[in-house]
Design goal:
Elements: E1 6-11, E2 16-23, E3 27-35, H1 37-41, H2 48-70, E4 77-85, H3 89-106, E5 110-114, H4 115-121, E6 134-139, E7 144-149, E8 155-160, H5 166-176, H6 183-191, H7 216-227, H8 255-284, E9 288-292, H9 299-312, E10 315-317, H10 329-340
Parallel strand pairs: 1-4, 4-5, 6-9, 9-10
Antiparallel strand pairs: 1-2, 2-3, 6-7, 7-8
Helix pairs in contact: 2-3, 4-10, 5-6, 5-7, 5-8, 6-8, 8-9
Bound molecules: 5'-O-[(R)-(carboxyoxy)(hydroxy)phosphoryl]adenosine and zinc ion (ZN).
């Protein structure tokens, strides 16, 4: 254990309080996540003020558990890594203050890590090194972005969402369909019994070869379909018939219709993500395709990405399920590369709600 570089990672950018110990940038010795899903579920989304408070309550225990599960004592920790951007500012500050305190108390370097870059690194955890150049799609509740990756630390943003993030669209559509929160896993489950071609929904690709995303039109189309707004999206088999009268609610839909709508929505999101990832892969001349973020847990997206990689002759790197959603192992893993490159921070490290370009 002594000749490995152990890094303690801390993550609190959204609604997961997480800590992990990772050896040499890839071997995960512990990965502790305290989820706040139950706290936010009745609001249908993350309430920032509640999230910050819950982080404060959980963080000491989560860090102590991560050290204990790794069988590590502070003397063995080479650096303290923390997500310092992007995220909810009040949430980020809780992890940052905890990391600064430990860095100071233990006399170990502090390493600030970009949360989205950490998602793009997550397939390396407990797995082989990633071959670069890679095209990475990070899709989560807060982000949908494509990157050209030259190395774990060299990422260039190629495109991002101009409105909702993909995961956010899953969460909002699940709420329209009354499938519960978080929406991604619920839609993924419901879609298994549905027909993805049942409802015609838009694929917003934006102009030309754009690598940006927009999901708000799709979300509205689902809403119109449910409400039956005249002229809105209708089921194919009804396309020739009269428009459904307005003011239907989701309660009027049969379980099969809900499953069909869930499957059709999921297919529309996956189509857009696949097409943009293909464009990015070509632009980057990628050897590897990377998926990261909570939406990378989606079964249809995983399958579409695998087929795409096969057609392009690329290797597809998917994170383990536990490393798709927010976690601190990806933070500690990426921090090892910062440390190798001498990129450490002082106690004046700041938190940023948005990514600096
Ligand atoms: O990465 P993550 O834990 O948090 C953020 O950084 O935002 O991602 C959470 C998001 C949620 O929007 C959730 O609905 C979505 O990931 N998600 C999924 C699936 N599992 C989680 N979306 C689609 N299919 C899934 N199976
Ligand atoms: Zn995330």
């Amino acid at each position: 254990m002594t000749d490995q570089a152990l890094i303690l990672g801390i993550e609190s950018s959204c609604d997961e309080t997480a800590a992990a110990v990772v050896a040499d940038g890839w071997r995960v010795l512990s990965n502790v996540v305290a989820s706040q899903i139950d706290l936010h579920a009745r609001f249908g989304g993350v309430v920032p003020e509640l999230a910050s408070r819950a982080h404060i309550e959980a963080i000491d225990t989560v860090i102590a558990r991560a050290l204990r599960q790794a069988g590590a004592v502070p003397e063995q920790i080479a650096a303290v890594a923390v997500t310092n951007e992007p995220g909810l500012i009040g949430s980020l500050l809780v992890g940052l203050m905890a990391a600064k305190t430990l860095s100071w108390a233990w006399g170990r370097p502090l390493v600030g890590v970009n949360h989205v870059y950490a998602h793009a690194y997550s397939p390396r955890l407990n797995a082989a090194p990633i071959e670069y150049p890679a095209a990475a799609l990070v899709a989560s509740g807060g982000h949908t972005a494509l990157y050209r990756c030259r190395s774990p630390l060299e990422l260039e943003l190629l495109g991002g969402t101009i409105d909702d993030a993909a995961g956010e669209a899953f969460d909002k559509v699940a709420s329209i369909l009354r499938l519960g929160y978080p929406g991604g896993p619920a839609i993924d489950r419901a879609a298994r019994a549905g027909n993805p071609a049942a409802v015609r929904l838009p694929r917003t690709l934006l102009r030309g070869q754009s690598l940006d995303f927009s999901f708000s039109g799709l979300k509205t189309a689902v809403l119109y379909h449910v409400r039956g707004v005249p002229g809105g999206v209708r089921q194919r088999r009804q396309a020739a018939g009269p428009a459904r009268p307005p003011s239907r609610t989701i309660e009027d839909f049969s379980p099969q219709e809900v499953a069909d709508l869930a499957a059709s929505f999921q297919a529309a999101v996956v189509d857009v993500l696949r097409i943009k990832l293909r464009r990015a892969a070509r632009e980057v001349k990628a050897r590897t395709l990377i998926l990261g973020g909570g939406v990378a847990a989606n079964s249809a997206l995983r399958q579409a990405a695998a087929e795409l990689a096969g057609r392009l002759g690329c290797t597809l790197r998917l994170p383990e399920m536990a490393f798709c959603v927010d976690n601190a192992a990806m933070v500690a893993g990426l921090a090892w590369h910062h440390l190798q490159a001498g990129r450490v921070n002082g106690l004046d490290l700041e938190a940023h709600a948005t990514v600096r370009r």
